[in-house]
Amino acid sequence: MLLPVLLFAVVLVDSSQGYVFFAGGRDGWVLNPSESYGHWAERNRFQVNDSIVFRYEKGEDSVLVVAKKDFDSCNLSHPNRRFADGDSRFEFERSGWFFFVSGAPGRCEAGQKLVVVVMAVRRPRWPPVSAPPSLSPTPVLPPAASPPSETSDPATPPASAPSPSPKASARPPAFPPIPTGETSVPVLSPAPGPSESAATAGAGDHSGKWMLRIATLVGDLDRLWRALRALYHPRNFYVVHLDREAPAMERQALAARVANDSLFAAVGNVVVIEKANMVTYRGPTMVANTLHAGALLLKQSKDWDWFINLSASDYPLVTQDDILHAFSSLPRNISFVEHTSRLAWKEEHRAKPVIVDPGLYLDKKTNVFWVSQKRDLPTAFKLFTGSAWVALSREFLEFCVWGWDNLPRILLMYYTNFVSAPEGYFQTVICNAPEFAGTVANHDLHYIRWDVPPKQHPHVLTLDDLPQMVSSGAPFARKFPRDGHVLDRIDQQLLGRANGSFVPGGWCVGDPPCSEVGDMAALRPGKGAERVARLMNGIIRSNKFAENQCR
Ligand SMILES: *[C@@H]1O[C@H](CO)[C@@H](O)[C@H](O)[C@H]1NC(C)=O
Ligand SMILES: *[C@@H]1O[C@H](CO)[C@@H](O)[C@H](O)[C@H]1NC(C)=O
Ligand SMILES: *[C@@H]1O[C@H](CO)[C@@H](O)[C@H](O)[C@H]1NC(C)=O
Ligand SMILES: *[C@@H]1O[C@H](CO)[C@@H](O)[C@H](O)[C@H]1NC(C)=O
Ligand SMILES: *[C@@H]1O[C@H](CO)[C@@H](O)[C@H](O)[C@H]1NC(C)=O
Ligand SMILES: *[C@@H]1O[C@H](CO)[C@@H](O)[C@H](O)[C@H]1NC(C)=O
């Protein structure tokens, strides 16, 4: 049978170059639209000079523009504006929040109301970053799950991480170690020049960027905001995702905060995924979400080196200047994926069960369900498992996202029915791809403290853990309580971050400090850079690098 398909897009542009939105789409301004107004507003992106048109039966209804408190309480007594002509057009002349309610009695209470957040500036979603300095690490934080799928690994605890102390060995280390002294590092060191080790980097003009992908729990907006500020560097890219569990208002509020932040707006390197994905605890939808964020980054820019996924309960232990400096000397092809092939109890409990993730096809969140039949262990490839926290090289992410080799796609389909897919997908792909197996570093860049024996979730970190966090050399730690002295202490002692502001770095100028971007290439690495370099010496610049690969 022939199925002719015609696709077309119509964009209405008026003289002032604004878009015209029709409230509620096809249904118009009615009592019970087929798509809720909250959902409709969330699908659209409103900018200054756009207009919204309300269509309804003249005489039957009206539109009131009201203040937030009157919106909340459906108080119709003193609207800012009132329209009743049946085809009412309202132009957004400023950014911020706009509240619309129906003027017909009882309808506001029944839900005929609409909130719109208008973005501050009309700009492409992902403006080019100005002349990139020649440095490289590109952290990207992927979205976190809701609730975050812990990387818990009761039988094979975090242990497979190589010890940070490089041991003398017969074989030469894969890469020459960077000397790290105990003394504090000079302030204001010049940005490293184009890295000769950037074999695949072409001109070597990568600016240091990570992609930050964060997904968080309901009500976690403030925590996410704090982590974002602690992790921010103008050279990195950040993709932020609040999953579908978060109320639409919260996602809009996050987008509005990002759009309204003058520094984020000026640099344009923080992107909020506004069309939220459904993400199920332990389900494959988390992997889909991570790949989605990765695909977004690859599409927007090739100018970054590592894709890192974090959640709102993660926090950095070193400054971004430290990370950029320490990573600038690493080969760009290294991916950090903690892994092991010793599945142990996971063989029975992860690899053999077959699950279905309703997040793939239902629009309400429910838990994964188990199919009664079990399946055999695979023989077409070897299974690996490990930490769900990964830092992937751009090359490897391209391999996974583009799928010119069928392996990443086949494994994605296999993991669709796998319990805790995020703890195995990237591990199994990288170790079964000969061209990438030699690039995997067996570490997840996190300090995570497990119970002995490990339970489902790791310890919530407290002040007592601070010395171990620091001595681990890990750039990130998890998981942290929503509010705790430990984060304040990390801000104070490790990051030098003042309450509410960014972590000071070489890029900071303006008054107050870091309110403007100066020289993005200027790095001021401190003690944190030494700690990370020591860790890297242990992981990558030692013979352990190859010994710990894919075993
Ligand atoms: C909105 O339109 C006015 C008038 O056409 C124009 O001056 C202004 O720059 C526009 N604002 C934005 C943000 O596009
Ligand atoms: C509506 O708001 C006005 C002004 O704030 C107030 O005087 C009035 O009592 C409110 N009405 C209701 C029903 O809350
Ligand atoms: C934007 O920021 C200003 C002050 O910095 C604040 O008054 C305003 O409410 C913010 N707007 C939004 C939409 O968050
Ligand atoms: C990425 O990060 C989230 C936390 O935001 C985590 O739950 C998820 O499992 C991670 N890993 C993968 C492979 O998606
Ligand atoms: C990774 O890059 C380094 C340095 O650029 C190179 O020497 C090495 O051969 C590469 N490794 C693989 C497995 O391609
Ligand atoms: C700054 O810190 C104080 C005390 O820890 C806290 O009460 C306050 O809310 C913080 N302010 C901001 C803007 O985070």
Automatic annotation (TrEMBL):
Its main location: membrane. Residues 19-120 form the Phytocyanin domain. PROSITE patterns: PHYTOCYANIN. It comes from the Eukaryota. It is found in: Endomembrane system; Membrane. Residues 127-146, 155-165 have a biased composition (Pro residues). Residues 127-204 are annotated as: Disordered. Residues 1-18 form the signal peptide. PANTHER family: GLYCOSYLTRANSFERASE, OS01G0201100 PROTEIN. This is Phytocyanin domain-containing protein. It comes from Zingiber officinale (Ginger).
